[in-house]
Give the backbone structure.
Amino acid sequence: MKISVFTLGCKTNLYESGQIIAALNAKGYTAVHGLVPADVFVLNTCAVTGEAERKSRQAVERARKLNPLCRVLVVGCAAEKNAEQFADLPNVTFVKGVSDKTEIAERIEDLGTDVEQLPSVFAESVFSAQERTRAFVKIQDGCNNFCSYCIVPYLRGRSRSRRIADIVRETEQVCSAETVLIGIDISQFGKDTGESLPQLFDALRNVHSRLRMGSLEARVVTDEFLESLTHVDFCPHFHLSLQSGCDSVLKRMNRKYTTEQYMDAVKKIRNVFPDAGITTDVIVGFCGETEEEFRQTYDFLRQVHFADIHVFPYSPREGTVAYGWQDTDGAVKSRRAEELAVLKEQFKRDFAEKFVGTTQQVLAERRRGDLWQGYTRQYLRVYFEGETQMGNIVNVQIKEPYSDGAKGEMI
């Protein structure tokens, strides 16, 4: 029996799909990543926005087009939020929430719905099947922040951390050129177990892989934390979550820092890693954001001068604290997002310019035509010619800004 496991949403979902595949293969099935023709489809869904939830429902129809006689099993956040939206769809035989997704391997033949109580401790035991040049290792799940716009804590549960010894075992096993440590909010790692991120990196000193991290909160950036990163093969790229560069908006969002504290974290990073790539997310038009508040955000972004920014117009999410609050006109959101899109392109070009004339280590991830594509340690996308193999780390001399990154020549 062939089983297709299709992932929507975040890198944590992608990792968990790998766990599902590993569990299915261990049971004797043939399971693969991606929406491809199969007898059974497992859809690992997302509900971070209404659009993500809609795409999760659409995935059922996409599976049916590949095989009208297939069976579809739905798991993940969209199922956790509202299992009924899938239960009555054609070909859907089983719906499961977020808890212990690998249990789906035991329930391929089951019918009905099973959305269990969310766990209070990290209890996963199956390592993820890795099929990409960059490996992901999950170190944490859940979130305690309860930002006023965000549905995730209600779907993923409270923060729970994986034990360091278990993380080290999996990181050693995947044997990848690059490993990314991920979670829903890895800044909370160890708060529930008495361990810490500095202790984790100390334990990873002898791992033969360059290490990268998922999204972080500014409050985790301490001198002790940054010092611990200098003792491993660390990629100096920090995705430092911002959301707004205006303190009054941050307060309405229930973000637990100020722009001053955020800038202090940026300065600490650049003091230890001068060429670090610092990227972020920004929400425009959050609940009555005024023109003055937006201008404060715009000016703060320029002050930090990020390597890249990801811009999202605010979308009200039912079930969150902010749902029903005063919204911002859609045309205003679009105009502000367009302004930041222009700033984003400027940032990306300026970041690429910094490395022109330097030699950088690039992970060869894919080839399109005559050019390889991959990322430097600082997360600059590089296009280059040369003979190599996917998954190799090669030295590339950066020649010029190009497309959404830089162009270089392999040495």
Remarks:
- The chain has a mean pLDDT of 94.
- DSSP finds twelve helices and 19 strands in the chain.
- The domain at 2-114 is CATH 3.40.50.12160 (Rossmann fold).
